[in-house]
């Protein structure tokens, strides 16, 4: 085999492998963040930081704050729903 044939096969192989690896890079983006969320008000949805499962969010009467279920590998845990600044999202207490 000549040198030119080896180069063509190497480049072709590299392109095939590169295309295969890039095909795995896809992003799933929800067009409307509030479309799945029905339990919490729109104001809470707009305040909540990304990366929290708003479909499981709920207001707990014990503390007046919103909590969501974080599903880990081992267990599901309730975590406080936080704003983009990291503060818990709670309702004002009536006096």
TrEMBL record:
This is Uncharacterized protein. It comes from Litoreibacter halocynthiae.
